[in-house]
Design brief:
Blueprint lengths: L1 H11 L7 E6 L3 E7 L5 H5 L4 H14 L5 E7 L1
């Protein structure tokens, strides 16, 4: 899941070398923290959060195969 988020984020931002993904895995859920440069934050979130919502939807669809709950947090 973390690699999927990292690949999507690197394609969106101007500074792909500053994209960091931290994956915290529990028994029933996974928390994925996405950290990007402050100037790229708007590109990852998108207008009215549409791109962030799309990223979360893709990750949740991939998580269904593993029967896990996934939370994607975008941090600065």
């Amino acid at each position: 899941m973390g690699e999927l988020v990292k690949t999507l984020a690197k394609a969106l931002v101007d500074n792909p070398d500053q994209v960091r993904v931290n994956e915290i895995e529990g028994t029933q859920s996974i928390i994925i923290e996405l950290k990007v440069a402050s100037e790229d934050m708007g590109k990852v979130i998108g207008k009215q959060g549409r791109i962030a919502k799309a990223i979360r939807t893709l990750v949740k669809a991939a998580a269904i195969k593993e029967n896990k709950r996934v939370v994607v947090e975008i941090i600065q």
